[in-house]
Amino acid sequence: MKQLVVTPVRCIGCRTCEIACAFSHPAGKTPGRSRIRAFPIRPPEGGLPVVCFQCDQAACVLVCPTQALTRNETTGAVDYHDLRCIHCKACVAACPFGNIGYDDGTSRCFKCDLCGGDPECAKYCPSRALEFA
Amino acid sequence: MILTINGRPLAARPGETLLQVARRAGIDLPTLCHHEGLEAWGGCRLCVVEMRRHPDEAPKVVPSCLQAAEDGLRVETHTENLLRIRATLLDLLLTRAPGSELIRRLALEHGVGDTTFVPQAEPSNCILCTLCTRACAAVGAFAISTAGRGAEGEISLPFVDDADACVGCGSCAAVCPTGCIELKDEGLARTIWGRTFQRVPCEVSGEPTITREHAALLSKRTGLPTDGFFVTDEGRRRQTADTIAALVGVGEGRAA
Amino acid sequence: MSERIPNLAALEAWRASLQAAHDANRKAIAICAGTGCKAYGSDKLAEAFRKGVAERGLDVDVRATGCHGFCERGPLVVIYPSMIFYQEVGRKNLAKDVAEILDQTVAAAPGAEQIVPRLQYKTPAGEAVVHERDVPFYKHQNRLILSFNGKIDPESLADYVRNGGYRALGKALGSMTPEQVLAEVEASGLRGRGGAGFPTGRKWRFTRTADAPRVDGRPMKYVVCNADEGDPGAFMDRSVLEGNPHGVLEGLLLGAYAIGAREGYVYVRNEYPLAVQRLTKAIADARAAGLLGDDILGTGFAFDLHVTRGAGAFVCGEETALIGSVEGNKGQPRFRPPYPAVSGLWGCPTNINNVETWVNVPLIVDRGAAWFAGIGTAGSKGTKIFSLVGKVNHTGLVEVPMGASLRHIVEHIGGGIKDGRAFKAVQTGGPSGGCLPESMLDLEVDFDTLTAAGSMMGSGGMIVMDDRTCMVDVARYFIDFLIQESCGKCTPCRDGLIQMGHLMHDLVEGRGTHATLDRLEALAPVVRDASLCALGQTAPNPVLSTLKYFRHEYLAHIDDKQCPAGVCKALITYRITDRCTGCTICAVQCPEKVITGEKKALHLIDEARCTRCGVCHSVCTFDAIDILPGR
């Protein structure tokens, strides 16, 4: 199964991944929240991408009371099912890495879903800091 | 298995409900008390459909959210009788929830403006769908339930004002279709069910995270340590970036 | 005998010895100790008889029995073996009544008994009746299930056994397989007596064949007795539970054997403390005798029973709400399927039947399906107990074969309408049923005929109404009842009934218009079709059946602003006629002080200020006040 591989030293902090992610997950007519964050590192050697690790034993899956977070056997991602969500935000509290958030605007959680198996961020990363392999 | 809905043959998997099959086929069935993440309740009755096992029997009116799909079922979702039933149900619900945008919109879609019935004396906008109590049970707090019977029913804390079991997670207010549960967030304070909680500020950003009570409940249910809960996702991403930077050896190990 | 009965042979030996020791010619005084007669003081009566017998040194058995059924005439006393019948004993002068019965009837030699005339039953024509079997109320009945009630002490296992109790159980455990017992019940044609009339054998079969979760390595199934009896005016189950609890236990044992159930629950409404007490004692005695528990009668069959009390909710008579209640949850119905036969108590296959259904089972197993199927009609076999109440001369519990006509019940057994008034309607099936008019009096009562007529059998409540009953008010009463009892889970019942209540109140309070009827008739089908359970689904029946047969009465309320029956306060007038003697009692009693008049002169009610409370009418001893329709 392919995985989203992050090589931090290659990141140039351009944040194109964030734009690609936001536009490919629209909230109504506007771009949504980006599931990936590329933090600029000073001195400006580049950046540090942080994105969901799709943990084997995910804390978010463990705390969700309604099984709104489940493993997608095809993509390997932990998928969020908004219709099952009761908005308790336990997942947001539980993720040790901050890779799931809650968007008050859409009343939905947001997390990386590997774009269903063809992640946009990896396509647009100019420096191969993000690869789907 | 194959069943027909409105004359269309549709495939269904064992364990599916008529509602799931219909919605998958793009048929719009309104629901109010239904939530994918919670056990079906079958109380609002908006999702009712007409069902026959054999062509010459009289149709049976059943809630599609609970009726299991069976091979050979003949289902109708929008007969005159069903539309009349839905319109009447929404008309009745308007006596309880005249201030609910959702109920008003659904009622209008069914040809009902203001209620034609005698309204409740002091409508609370609660339609007793029990989504809140079911969500509270799912979260594991069991802080609210329906007190009283019939039309006198009310969503209530034990002994009316004992909010000890509430953890301030806000799920009840979030799932409520009419928005009649008051939740007030002001700074770190959150007031709900007559109790004011303090949400713990994020260690990194100072933004509100969750209440101590909610953290304690999560810890009890999952075994995760509570001290991990009090950072916002943004704050934690920063921490993660710092950690990775340090591990990988870039930029003095600090994210901007 | 409080020792364990070790095997089937020992049970029969005990029965034989009890029968041998019983002197059928020995005098006995049977005093009804059902709830109704207890309320009339039958406990004190029984005590007085015991004392009197002891003082006179008589060799007489004084026995408190279960409900005799003729509840209106309690306390009831029957002298055995001659079966001399006395009614209303001790109501006016306990000591005198007891003394005279003992001295004149009991102490006398057989054949030389003297009757106490004032305590005899008299027909409406004035004829006095000596023997119980000739009392019209009893004469026209077919008392199979209720046959134990007048005879046995319901707290005595020995009495039950002596009269043939547990013989069916012995036969089943000793010479029939569970499948054979089930087949017998199926062949009998027994249909559920709780209201729905579902074929009992078929329900047992579903439960028997259902897959069961395992508890302690063995499949777990339950049998449940629905003793919630919530219909207003119904007390059939109460009398059976109080008067013959072992009959119910035996039925449950046979059902458990046939179905493969290991445990059972009797869900009794909390308002029946005597039934709870009698059941609890019967269970304790059965356990001590080895008729409940492990290795029953040494056959290896194991079954135990618990009593669960209700908490005052009519909806808990609905089987899935009942299951919820037994489980400790809120008593709210659940969607079916799955039916309880497949998944009931704690997810296990559960067979729920009404008290009267269970108590028929020992009779069927003992005497055979063919015997049972010979009673009743083609579609409805056996007898049915009705609680006949309302405006009849004889109210009480009536057991007749299915197919008996309404006329037979109301006129021959019930003795016709009280006070010589006119029959108007009979309401059957409780809040789920309907009202049938005079034109339907020859209806042969069974499940299907009643349903076809727009009513239903229900659990057996039968309320007789005369020309002073307002049918609009009756419909209003049932809607108000159901509003109180609705569990509140589903919109059409919870909120729809409230609105039907508003409309019915508009009608009885004088605000009704034709639009009110239109709105009732538009709302009723929605409540009927969209409700979750039978409470809501049948709630419109009283309204719809009265609209069907008594529409003219509704129209009188609307068009003429009159209540023809003289009931609805806003639509009647109290007027003093020239029969008035000027006794001034009404003026004195009037709470609003709106009656004026001189002593010995015609009095006058200020009709504008009169609140129609009815006090003047009820205190007038000259019947001088008329209730006129209209305001």
Structure in words:
The complex is a heterotrimer of chains A (133), B (256) and C (631). Chain A is of the alpha+beta class. Chain A has a single domain (4-132), classed as Alpha-Beta Plaits. In chain A, 18% of the residues lie in helices and 23% in strands. Chain A has four helices and eight strands. Chain A has helices spanning 16-24, 59-63, 90-94, 120-124, and strands spanning 4-6, 37-41, 46-50, 69-71, 78-80, 100-103, 108-111, 130-132. Chain A has a two-stranded antiparallel sheet. Among the domains of chain B are: 2-78, Ubiquitin-like (UB roll); 131-230, no CATH class. In chain B, the strands form three sheets. Chain B has a five-stranded mixed beta sheet with strand order 2-1-5-3-4, covered by helices on one side. In chain B, helix 2 packs antiparallel against helix 3 (101-109). The longest helix of chain B is centred in the middle third of the chain and has 17 residues, at 80-96. Chain C folds into five domains: 25-135, 3-Layer(aba) Sandwich (Glutaredoxin); 165-373, 3-Layer(aba) Sandwich (Rossmann fold), CATH 3.40.50; 383-469, Ubiquitin-like (UB roll) (Roll), CATH 3.10.20; 472-560, NADH-ubiquinone oxidoreductase 51kDa subunit, iron-sulphur binding domain (de novo design (two linked rop proteins), Up-down Bundle), CATH 1.20.1440; 572-629, Alpha-Beta Plaits. Chain C is built from 25 helices and 22 strands. The longest helix of chain C is centred in the C-terminal third of the chain and has 18 residues, at 491-508. The model of chain C has no long low-confidence stretch (mean pLDDT 95). Classes of the chains: A alpha+beta (133), B alpha+beta (256), C alpha/beta (631). The interface between A and B is large, with 40 and 44 residues.
What is the fold's blueprint, element by element?
The complex is a heterotrimer of chains A (133), B (256) and C (631).
Chain A: E1 4-6, H1 16-24, E2 37-41, E3 46-50, H2 59-63, E4 69-71, E5 78-80, H3 90-94, E6 100-103, E7 108-111, H4 120-124, E8 130-132
Antiparallel strand pairs in A: 1-8, 2-3, 4-5, 6-7
Chain B: E1 2-5, E2 8-11, H1 18-24, E3 48-52, E4 60-63, E5 74-76, H2 80-96, H3 101-109, H4 131-139, E6 145-147, E7 154-156, H5 171-175, E8 183-186, E9 189-192, E10 195-201, E11 208-211, H6 212-222, H7 233-248
Chain C: H1 8-21, E1 28-32, H2 35-39, H3 42-56, E2 61-65, E3 77-80, E4 84-86, H4 94-106, E5 121-122, E6 128-129, H5 136-139, H6 157-162, H7 167-175, H8 178-188, H9 200-209, E7 214-215, E8 218-219, E9 222-227, H10 236-243, H11 245-259, E10 263-268, H12 273-288, E11 293-296, E12 301-309, H13 319-326, E13 350-354, H14 355-367, H15 369-373, E14 383-390, E15 396-401, H16 406-413, E16 423-428, E17 434-437, H17 447-452, E18 461-466, H18 471-485, H19 491-508, H20 514-530, H21 534-538, H22 541-549, H23 551-560, E19 572-576, H24 585-589, E20 595-596, E21 604-605, H25 615-619, E22 625-629
Parallel strand pairs in C: 1-2, 9-10, 9-13, 10-12, 14-18
Antiparallel strand pairs in C: 1-3, 3-4, 5-6, 7-8, 11-12, 14-15, 16-17, 16-18, 19-22, 20-21
Helix pairs in contact in C: 3-4, 7-11, 7-14, 8-9, 8-11, 10-11, 10-12, 11-14, 18-19, 18-22, 19-20
